[in-house]
């Protein structure tokens, strides 16, 4: 019985360390946009903020879901709230921020607008690393 309990505890600890989720704040490498307050909501939801969207300080709320890979790692799929009202397309976009430090943004029809890599942000406020937003 003791061996089984020890085995289960070891497996649980290994699984917990394998769940390397996306950090709570990331910058899109080479772009002025970044994400803050990325968090899980319950068992399947996710939320956060898309910051400096237009390189001039515009910010939007994000809501979506957690997506997990076969390895048990977590990524986020977010829809935007309010972006359509200010963007020339008049449509929202969907972000996929993956735990392998990559991201993709899709238009309202599911077409890839852009993709790239992200880096963890340790200190805010952030000095943007790029001069253009990822969606334009």
The number of distinct helices, counting runs of at least 4 residues, comes to 2
Distance between the termini: 60 Å
Q: What percent strand?
A: 35-45%
Largest beta-sheet details: 8 strands, antiparallel, barrel
Tally of DSSP β-strands: 8
Helix-residue proportion: 10-25%
Low-pLDDT sequence parts: 1-20
Structural class of the helices, strands and pairings? alpha+beta
In summary, what is this structure?
This protein is an alpha+beta fold.
What does this protein structure show overall?
The chain is α+β, with helices and mostly antiparallel strands and 136 residues long. It has one domain (20-120). The protein is built from 2 helices and 8 strands, in the order H-E-E-E-E-E-H-E-E-E. It has helices spanning 2-18, 83-86, and strands at 26-28, 34-41, 45-51, 60-68, 74-81, 94-97, 102-106, 112-120. It has an 8-stranded antiparallel β-barrel. The radius of gyration is 17 Å and the shape is globular. The relative contact order is 0.21. The model is unreliable at 1-20 (pLDDT under 50).
Helix-strand blueprint:
Layout lengths: L1 H17 L7 E3 L5 E8 L3 E7 L8 E9 L5 E8 L1 H4 L7 E4 L4 E5 L5 E9 L16
Core attributes:
136 residues, alpha+beta, 8-stranded antiparallel barrel, 2 helices, 8 strands, 15% helix, globular, disordered N terminus, signal, Transglutaminase
């Amino acid at each position: 019985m003791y061996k089984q309990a020890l085995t289960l505890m070891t497996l649980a600890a290994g699984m917990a360390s394998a769940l390397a989720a996306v950090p709570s704040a990331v910058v899109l490498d080479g772009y002025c946009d970044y994400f803050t307050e990325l968090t899980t909501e319950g068992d399947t939801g996710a939320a956060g903020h898309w910051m400096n969207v237009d390189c001039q300080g515009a910010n939007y709320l994000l809501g979506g879901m957690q997506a997990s890979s076969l390895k048990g790692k977590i990524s986020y799929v977010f829809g935007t709230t309010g972006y359509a009202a200010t963007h020339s397309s008049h449509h929202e976009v969907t972000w996929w921020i993956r735990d392998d430090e990559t991201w993709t943004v899709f238009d309202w029809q599911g077409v890839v607008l852009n993709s790239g890599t992200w880096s963890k942000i340790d200190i805010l406020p952030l000095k943007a690393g790029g001069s253009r937003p990822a969606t334009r």
